[in-house]
């Protein structure tokens, strides 16, 4: 029977994979469990590196029901494949939670605008990164009658006839900026995003900054200086050092939430179903599709996300415990923050 090792904190993980093999859930990975695993289903908090791969000689498939892949050392994975002669496919779920992320970013933009006595509909929003999440936000801004510009040079390079990127300078002249880029380094992209928003950029940044992408896109020390100077108010859902982000930055952010922008019931189910289907195809498993039923809410709006209350709850809990307890608080609040997508 196929041995499946699955992060216990993946919503609907056991339900989705139970009929494919023998499922073992983990809180913390152990060498014994890794040594036996043939399929590893993991969250972004699990780092796939040389040490982990060395402990997992029987792995056939890696599956992570999330959007980004910056928790995976791709160079190490490619080297492992070459050394072992095994393909070890990796599956993730791009676009699965884009609607939820966009809803959350829009809620943050509206909250920051109202806090600054601005009508959200008067804003021009700069969207940095025009992939699934960026496009989903643009669609929502159109529905709200809000202007927007999109910056994505890699997309323009790939699709020059389909997309024309605004300049970075144009985006920085907007009223608000929302970040939706993957985390890349200079060795990975001609347009690296690591520390993309450094001290120089933040000095020219619009007064409202929303980050639902990756924490390391922003230089945290430079951001704290910009916040302290009164130049920027920030809504941060992603952090360097998760699940133990810098407490000083959590305190300074106008909105601080524990990586929950994509924590929508429909999106999480979609993500698990996507990687399950990919695992079945890779291993040629004959199994019926997993199609959970979820009853949509009769009414759920941007205001119902309750972003300010969630931020207050997270800040209060996170900042009131000793440093050694912060990771547990981060995960607990994150786990409790599941919601529905807004039915536009």
Describe this entry's structure for a reader.
The strands form two sheets. Strands 7-6-8-9-10-11 form a six-stranded parallel β-sheet. It contains 14 helices and eleven strands. The protein is globular and about 60 Å long. Helix content is 38%, strand content 12%. It folds into two domains: 3-92 and 266-283, 3-Layer(aba) Sandwich (Rossmann fold); 106-262 and 305-335, NAD(P)-binding Rossmann-like Domain (Rossmann fold, 3-Layer(aba) Sandwich). The model has no long low-confidence stretch (mean pLDDT 96). By secondary structure, the chain is α/β, with parallel strands linked by helices. Strand 9, helix 10 and strand 10 (233-236) form a beta-alpha-beta unit. The N and C termini lie far apart (43 Å).
**Beta-strand residue fraction:** 5-15%
What's the pLDDT, averaged over the residues?
A: 96
How is the CATH topology of the largest domain named? Rossmann fold
Q: How would you name the CATH homologous superfamily of the largest domain?
A: NAD(P)-binding Rossmann-like Domain
User: Helical region count?
Assistant: 14
Helix and strand composition category: alpha/beta
The main sheet orders its strands as 7-6-8-9-10-11
What spatial form do the alpha-carbon principal axes imply? globular
Count of structural domains: 2
Characteristics of this structure?
344 residues; Rossmann fold; five-stranded parallel β-sheet; six-stranded parallel β-sheet; alpha/beta; single chain; 14 helices
Short description:
Helices cover 38% and strands 12% of the residues. By secondary structure, the protein is an alpha/beta fold.
């Amino acid at each position: 029977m196929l041995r499946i090792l699955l992060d216990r904190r993946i919503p609907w993980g056991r339900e989705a994979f139970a009929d494919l093999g023998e499922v073992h859930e983990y809180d913390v990975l152990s060498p014994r469990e890794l040594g036996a695993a043939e399929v590893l289903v993991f969250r972004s908090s699990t780092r796939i590196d040389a040490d982990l791969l060395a402990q997992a000689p029987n792995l056939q498939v890696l599956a992570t029901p999330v959007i980004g892949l910056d928790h995976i050392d791709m160079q190490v994975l490619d080297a492992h494949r070459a050394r072992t002669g095994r393909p070890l496919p990796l599956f993730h779920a791009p676009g699965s939670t884009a609607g939820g992320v966009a809803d959350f970013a829009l809620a943050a933009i509206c909250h920051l605008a109202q806090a600054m006595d601005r009508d959200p509909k008067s804003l021009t929003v700069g969207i940095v990164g025009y992939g699934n999440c960026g496009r989903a936000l643009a669609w929502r801004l159109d529905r709200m009658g809000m202007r927007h510009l999109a910056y994505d040079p890699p997309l323009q390079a790939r699709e020059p006839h389909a997309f024309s990127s605004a300049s970075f300078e144009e985006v920085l002249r907007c009223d608000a900026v929302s970040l939706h880029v993957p985390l890349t380094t200079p060795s990975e992209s001609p347009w690296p995003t690591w520390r993309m928003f450094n001290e120089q950029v933040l000095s020219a940044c619009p007064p409202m900054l929303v980050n639902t992408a990756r924490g390391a896109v922003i230089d945290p020390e430079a951001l704290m200086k910009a916040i302290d100077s009164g130049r920027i108010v920030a809504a941060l859902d992603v952090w360097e050092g998760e699940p133990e982000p810098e407490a000083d930055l959590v305190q300074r952010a106008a909105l601080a939430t524990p990586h929950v922008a994509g924590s929508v019931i429909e999106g999480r189910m979609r993500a698990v179903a996507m990687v399950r289907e990919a695992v079945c195809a890779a291993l040629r498993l004959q199994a019926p599709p997993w199609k959970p039923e979820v009853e949509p809410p009769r009414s759920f709006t941007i205001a119902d996300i309750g972003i300010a209350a969630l931020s207050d709850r997270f800040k209060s809990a996170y900042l009131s415990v000793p440093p050694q307890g912060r990771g547990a608080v981060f995960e607990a609040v994150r786990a409790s923050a599941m919601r529905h997508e807004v039915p536009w």
